[in-house]
Amino acid sequence: MNPSPQRRPTVSFPPQTSLLFAPFSSTASNAPFDRDIKKLQRENSLLTSIKYSVPDVSEYDYVRDEMACRLVDRLDDVKRHFPLALDIGSGCGHIYRAICRDDALSLEEEEKDGSNDISKADERFSGGVGGVRRLVQVDSCELVLRRDEEESESNVSTEEEQNRCATYRMVHDEELADGGKLPFPDGTFDLVISSGSLHWVNDLPGVMAEAKRVLKPDGCILLAIVGGSTLPELRSALVLAETERHGGVSPHVGPFTEGNDIGSLLTSAGFTLPTVDVDTIHIEYPNMMVLMEHIQRMGEGNACVQRRQGTLGWETFVAASAICEEMFSPPEEKDRGLVASMQVIYAIGWSPHENQPKPAARGSGTRTIGDISGMITKNKKEI
Description:
Structural class: alpha/beta
Distance between the termini: 42 Å
Order of helices and strands: HHEHHEHHHEEHEHHEHHEH
Radius of gyration: 23 Å
Strand order of the largest sheet: 3-2-1-4-5-7-6
Shape: globular
């Protein structure tokens, strides 16, 4: 996967870099992330693009768009319809655009799976991927949430796509700190979906519990979260360069969650039939400086509470860039460059319902693992 083409010969850090070293302003003493700084970073990523007259403000959306498309592809594999959906941490509408790009299942299939409980207000919408006819988008940053609100061509490209799914945007913090709740009654939505936003949330168990509360029985939660093995190249280069020049290290890439933790969170929140899979996206950049510029313009700068209070200095960044070029350049490329790795964790779970498959009672099995292993060995020999 390649980012957008090189736009200018000189790459510089955006003016908002100083926000990474601002004083901690979160209310939770043990929170790993500073949510106030993260909101400022996301706002300034958009304001910077406007200030410097970037022709297309969606130029840095390629990672989130890719994550959203891959997540919606998984939604398309579920043979069910979800007329009313909630997108937590929607950003500028990546999930909405992905849902609108294709039709739902046929009406005949919809009647078979019994998910045709559609309000009269939504009857005029044919339904996008997953049969979603109305999507509520929730995000903490109003500037990002409403970035494309008045630009219909940026949201969906054709009138046909506009008729597939309606949407409503609401400003609300995904953090749900101090016992906060989503502003919806119990059992409201058929689907809760989130892509590329929960990795900066401090209280993931609280978000999972609220998602279960607002889901109808047998409702679905579908997530795409940035995993802990994201940007190991940048981590390693900055650790080596900072240790050599400063005698110690500070966090530069967030302490993101692991795949097995997501499964445990879904189970602890009361979801059934959890399934987790992990994907890795490789992206080529000319050098580390371009990678860091793109991270800043995406609003994904360092928001760790324990971040360094002060700048590293250009000599440290130049050293880290040289380390990246030496250690992580594509082996077949003579002109060097950098291949960055991003781990994405996809997870699905279901709100409990009596009709869902249930495991047999413990001790009710009639065969042992040894019996099954012997049967497999015997079949192999016969083949």
